[in-house]
Every structure is written in C-alpha cells, then in structure tokens.
C-alpha cells in the first residue's frame, strides 16, 4: 500500500509536468488574430500565468480534496468526463478478458493433455502468432478485409453486438496467445505431480483430473498472468479505441492530449492509477483464496 501511494504521487507529478510540455492551450482555443491582452486573460482565467510550481501546488491541493479540476474544452468537472468514458472501456475489457480466459483454458488444457501432438503444435503456433501480432496492424487489416472489402462489419461506433466484433477480435489476440502458453505449461507441470497419479489410481475421470485437480493447482500463474493482462487493458487499449472510434477512456486520453485539456488528461491518469492499484489488491486477495498456504495480515 505504501509503495502504491508513492508510485501514484510520482506518476501524478510526472504527468503534470509532461502534459504541459505539449504547449500553451491558448494557441488552440483562441484564434490566431487574438490580441496579447486576450491571451493573457485566457491564461489568467485558467491559472497558466502562474509559475509552474505554483500551478502544481494548486493542483496538489485540489487533488487532496478529490477535486481534479474542470475541463478547459467542455467547462465541466474533468472527473465527470472520465467516469462517463470509463464504463465503455471496462465493458470492452471485461468481454475480451472473459473470452480470452475461457478459450485459453480450453485450448491450453487440451494441449497440455496431449503434448507434442498435432493439436498442441497448432495451439502453439496460434498462441505465438496472437501474442506477437501488433494490434494496430491487425485492426487495419481486419477493417480492410471485413469492412471495406466484404462490407460485413462496421468500422466504428458502439451500436449493436456487430460493432463489438472487430475490437474484441483485435484485443483478444494478445491475452489469448499469452494465456494459452501459460495454461499449457502450468497444467503440464501439475499433471506430473503425485496427487494426479493418486487421483488416477482412485479411478477419477480424466475430465475431473484436468479441470478440477490439475487446473486448480495450476491456477496461480494463470491468475497472475490474467491479472497483469487485465491491468494492461485498463490503459492499453488507446490505439484500438482510436482506430475503431470506441468512445472509451483511451480515445478520450488521445483527444484530450491533442486538445491540451490538461485537467482531463490528469484525471484519466489519476483514475487509471487508482483502478490499477485497487485491482492489484484484488488479485492478491484472490491468491489467498486459491492457495491456502498464502496468508495476509
């Protein structure tokens, strides 16, 4: 917890100064013909005339009161804009991770049950291809084939289920590829354990051995990897959301940086960091439930 707090403080400090290196917002929000007096009034209104350390002190004071400031572009609290965009990103991440975990478990367990067999070889090739394929390249390729070529799927938007197909397919490749390898290796290790031989000697069914005995004891590395990948989804879908016009926090972040909307960028970073730290705590608690040898005070 202490390490997470100092990491959050360092991240906020870094983002505050980096975002101001993008330039003066007055260059975007005011016409080129605006007078110097108008620019000074604009900067004074948004507190940009003060020294940078004074601006950071004001921001830190507001953050301590859970006030992340107002959007320069929309004129309303930045936290409201971020919390409106987050549910869309979380839904996409949840659907993608659930499908990735289920598919990787089914394929990884079966590959571990028949190692070096034809299915194992195919699963290995698919997992390596999925884990190494760049998201932006896959997204553009699928759009060219299924949207432009065959006109089967939309290129952007969040309407019915058909709008989810391309973003989910693109996002699922990497976690699926990584998890298949982890599940396969963890289950293969578990299948060589003495308790598996004991279960077989007692006449347990192979399905029970694979999905109850072996998978449960192999769950810690799977949960660790799945948790790490899920955390990456919280702030790693920026490119995919931008390509498919998905109105989530990733697209909001890119747009806010381009518009030099400092308050929104800072709010996205703070909320994302808090979500990641909270998710890490949840993963640690899940460890204790899966492995009784682990105890937390």
List keywords for this structure.
297 residues; mainly alpha; MetI-like fold; 14 helices; 0% strand; elongated
Please outline what is shown here.
By secondary structure, the chain is mostly helical.
Structure description:
It is a single chain. With 297 residues, the chain is an all-alpha fold. The protein folds into two domains: 2-64, no CATH class; 78-290, MetI-like fold (Orthogonal Bundle). 74% of the residues lie in helices and 0% in strands. It has helices at 2-19, 26-29, 36-45, 52-64, 78-113, 118-132, 135-149, 165-191, 194-201, 206-217, 219-236, 238-243, 249-258, 262-290. The longest helix has 36 residues, at 78-113. It is elongated and about 85 Å long. It starts with a helix and ends in a 7-residue tail after the last helix. 28% of the residues are buried. The mean pLDDT is 88.
Give the topology.
Layout: H1 2-19, H2 26-29, H3 36-45, H4 52-64, H5 78-113, H6 118-132, H7 135-149, H8 165-191, H9 194-201, H10 206-217, H11 219-236, H12 238-243, H13 249-258, H14 262-290
Helix pairs in contact: 1-14, 5-6, 5-8, 5-11, 5-14, 6-8, 7-8, 8-10, 8-11, 9-10, 11-14, 13-14
